Amino acid sequence: MHCWKTINLKKQYGFDRLFMISALFGVAVFMASYIGLAIVYATPLSDQYFLFFIVSLLAIYPLHKILHFLPLIGCHKSLKFIIRKQMKVCPAFSLHVNEPVPKIRFLLSLGTPFLVLNTAIISLSIAMPEFSHYFAMLLAYHCALCLTDIIYLRNLARSPKYALIEETDTGFEILIPPVVS
């Protein structure tokens, strides 16, 4: 196999720039979702269950990482779970795959948290419009978390169909299997 392309977002964009873009994306999602829900539903907002909102806010990040893991369940022997501190305070969880994974499975792994959690949050905001401000904040936070996944999805979608994706210290490598004649 040979490497078709290496993708390293931290090297390409830098942590500070990714953080800023992610924060701006989250603010934009909050504004759009909150205004949209306020226009559609004229119900008064409730500030009950604020503690439940805080717990939900704290639970989104671990749920996001677990949902990344689900499509890779068949590769569980080659997964490595790492916890490190980001900005000296916040724990950051990482899943590293030690062997190449088929492109479609990796794309599914990147897209699952976005599709599942955002669908759940939007459905709950429609079902309980009196808490739409909470759900708008949860949606914005999760979309900000998903920004790097979306950028990786965009880059990997352009790769060859039968490529394998391998995670290394330098980023994600898109590997092309040799042509069998």
From TrEMBL:
Keyword DNA-binding applies: no
Any coiled-coil regions, as ranges: none
Keyword annotations from UniProtKB, A to Z: Membrane, Transmembrane, Transmembrane helix
InterPro entries, A to Z: DUF3267 (IPR021683)
Superkingdom of this protein's organism: Bacteria
Matching Pfam families: DUF3267 (PF11667)
Membrane-spanning parts: 21-43, 49-75, 106-128, 134-153
Transmembrane in keyword set: yes
Name of the protein described by the UniProt record: DUF3267 domain-containing protein
Biological source species: Planococcus kocurii
